[in-house]
Amino acid sequence: MSEDYDWGDPYVAGKVAEYYARQRLREAEGRARRLRKKAKACGAKTRSGAPCRAKGLGRGGRCKNHGGGSTGPKTEAGRKRIAEGTRKYWQARRSGLVT
Ligand SMILES: [Zn+2]
Predict the structure, then answer these.
(1) How far is the CA of 53 from the centre of ligand 1 (A)?
(2) Across-strand partners of 86?
(3) Which among 16, 43, 76, 80 counts the fewest CB atoms within 10 Å?
(4) How many CA atoms lie within 13 A of 8 on its CB side?
(5) Tens-digit pLDDT profile for residues 34-92
(6) How far is the CA of 35 from the centre of ligand 1 (A)?
(7) In angstroms, what is the span from residue 37 Cα to ligand 1's centroid?
(8) What 3 state SS string does 42-97 have?
(9) 82 CA distance to ligand 1 centroid (A)?
(10) 66 CA from centroid of ligand 1 (Å)
């Protein structure tokens, strides 16, 4: 029979570890695929009357054209504030204060 494995054999153990690593990878891929599928259509009423078919990922499940996403800072002061905050955050992360 082909089931006569020596489970103490490092080679066999390596193969088993490899098998489970692949299994985990497959499961992670499946989860990622299911997450992608969950992005439902925006569904907002369009000018033609039909529901919008774009992926609704933003606020309220709407697409970027129907009130979904932030359009980001507009003014120079706002942009500076965002940049400064990002810099502070990464400094803190690099110094290990925030994980
Ligand atoms: Zn839309």
Answers:
(1) 6
(2) none
(3) 76
(4) 0
(5) 766 667 888 999 999 999 998 887 777 889 889 887 778 889 999 999 999 999 999 99
(6) 19
(7) 17
(8) CCCECCCCCECCCECCCHHHCCCCCCCCCCCCCCHHHHHHHHHHHHHHHHHHHCCC
(9) 27
(10) 5
